Amino acid sequence: MSLRRASAALVLAAGLGLAGCTGQSAPTSPSTPAAPAPESEAVEFAPASGDTVTAEQYSFTLPEGWGFPDGAPDGFDETTFAADLQDTDGYSDNLNILVSPGGEVTSEQVEQAGVAELEGAGATEVKALDRVTAAGSESAHLTARVEQSDIPYVIDQYYLVDAGQTYIITFSSSIDAPQAERDAVAQSVLVTWQWS
């Protein structure tokens, strides 16, 4: 399957991530409860042991067998997109990194506005899960089902903050990948994340 086609909706959804947020709290929609998700209890995840990705602002380690694939979406490079190059189930699990156009956003803003924005981009089954800690900051964790060209998959988004900027890290997985498996892959990367 084409990575470009499969990730088109993912890029759209991640690109819309809190575009309207600023340093002020996002308004609460009457149809969307604003109760913040609690931070999850500390769970130890083994760090990824594949290639190290180094950008100007950050570095992190990929899982074994992941790298920059042929057919990656336009506008992404080795520091902002990677995929499981050994995936054989018909969908190449991948991750992408985008800078939030809203600057620094809080977990509360993500949980209040992010669900509606993902739904507005066509995602379904959108949920705010327990927050995580990565690279010294607390991050909201949103998950959703996305479908592009009749290909369904699921995303997990994390929002890491440094120096007044939020980086949206989106992991895209096969539709039937269980949450525990997706968490393990994402956390194996996030525990290696360092700011430059």
Structure notes:
With 196 residues, the chain is α+β, with helices and mostly antiparallel strands. Helices cover 20% and strands 34% of the residues. The protein has one domain (3-22, 45-195): Protein Transport Mog1p, Chain A (3-Layer(aba) Sandwich). It has helices spanning 3-15, 107-120, 179-190, and strands at 52-54, 58-61, 66-67, 81-84, 94-99, 124-134, 137-148, 151-162, 165-174, 194-195. A seven-stranded antiparallel sheet has the order 3-4-5-9-8-7-6, sandwiched between helices. Strands 1-2-10 form a three-stranded antiparallel sheet. Strand 6 (124-134) and strand 7 form a beta hairpin. The N and C termini lie far apart (35 Å). The relative contact order is 0.24. Residues 1-19 form the signal peptide. Keywords: Signal. Residues 22-42 are annotated as: Disordered.
